[in-house]
């Protein structure tokens, strides 16, 4: 029963993840795929008072992009998402928009080089504005060769202390895929945070095992010493 419930919630989590892609209309080749759950952590300054709000995507209105774009005189690929956030009502009907720009270099197959979030008022968020990429905290969404990027939570910093969290993120750009989903044999590069965590786990386990061995050894030596004092033959 427990396993069945776990499997149900795991499938529910996968099914609820947002799925976006950009396909070249002329060739039918997909160049960008982005899967994940978005959380927008917004910060507004009003009369020297800081207000913080959190928003998620309720439903997607429109997705488009360009597999052959230009940004700052370099070839890029773009993903543009228009969506309705949670808490939006008929009183505040305007959708939000997220624009993501992917670039490439000799060392990288792709990397997010720019992004902008345009927000509107909702019943839950009384302020609105445009949030741009924080160049000091742009995140590490990048991969090499033909690999994709994977992260439990990819963080994209925005100017003013705001940020975008992409949970259970799977991303690829500058790809040449015949479908709109990740291939079953796709190779992923893990983000720095997850890679660091995966290194820490075996170290902690190893330290615990070493401590256990020391405790057992000390216990054995103490028992042996007591046995000698009582005149028993040593084992």
UniProtKB/TrEMBL annotation:
* One GO BP annotation of this record: establishment of protein localization to organelle
- The answer to whether keyword Transmembrane applies is yes
A Pfam family (short name) is Lamp2_2nd
Q: Where in the cell is it found?
A: Cell membrane; Membrane
Q: Provide the topology term for how it sits in the membrane.
A: Single-pass type I membrane protein
Q: Which residues form the signal peptide?
A: 1-17
Q: Which PROSITE patterns match?
A: LAMP_3
Q: InterPro entries, alphabetically?
A: Lamp2-like_TM, Lysosome-assoc_membr_glycop
Keywords, A to Z, come to: Glycoprotein, Membrane, Signal, Transmembrane, Transmembrane helix
The record's GO CC annotations read: gut granule membrane; late endosome membrane; lysosomal membrane; phagocytic vesicle; plasma membrane
Mark the transmembrane ranges. 200-222
Q: Where does the Lysosome-associated membrane glycoprotein 2-like transmembrane domain lie?
A: 201-232
Q: Which family does it belong to?
A: Belongs to the LAMP family.
Name the chain's protein: Lysosome-associated membrane glycoprotein 2-like transmembrane domain-containing protein
Where does this protein come from, organism-wise?
Answer: Caenorhabditis japonica
């Amino acid at each position: 029963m427990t396993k069945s419930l776990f499997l149900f919630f795991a499938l529910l989590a996968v099914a609820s993840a947002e799925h976006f892609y950009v396909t070249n209309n002329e060739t039918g080749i997909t160049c960008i795929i982005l899967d994940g759950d978005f959380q927008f952590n917004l910060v507004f300054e009003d009369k020297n008072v800081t207000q913080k709000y959190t928003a998620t995507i309720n439903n997607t209105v429109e997705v488009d992009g360009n597999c052959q774009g230009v940004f700052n005189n370099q070839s890029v690929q773009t993903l543009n998402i228009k969506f309705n956030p949670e808490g939006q009502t008929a009183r505040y009907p305007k959708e939000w928009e997220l624009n993501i720009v992917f670039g490439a270099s000799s060392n990288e197959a792709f990397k997010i080089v720019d992004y902008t979030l345009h927000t509107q008022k909702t019943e839950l968020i009384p302020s609105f504005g445009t949030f741009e990429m924080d160049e000091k905290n742009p995140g590490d969404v990048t991969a090499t060769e033909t690999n994709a990027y994977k992260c439990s939570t990819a963080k994209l910093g925005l100017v003013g202390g705001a940020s975008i969290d992409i949970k259970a993120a799977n991303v690829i750009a500058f790809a040449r895929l015949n479908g709109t989903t990740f291939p079953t044999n796709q190779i992923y590069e893990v983000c720095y945070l997850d890679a660091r965590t995966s290194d820490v786990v075996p170290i902690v386990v190893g330290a615990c095992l070493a401590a256990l061995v020391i405790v057992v050894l000390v216990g054995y030596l103490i028992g042996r010493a007591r046995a000698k004092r009582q005149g028993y033959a040593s084992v």
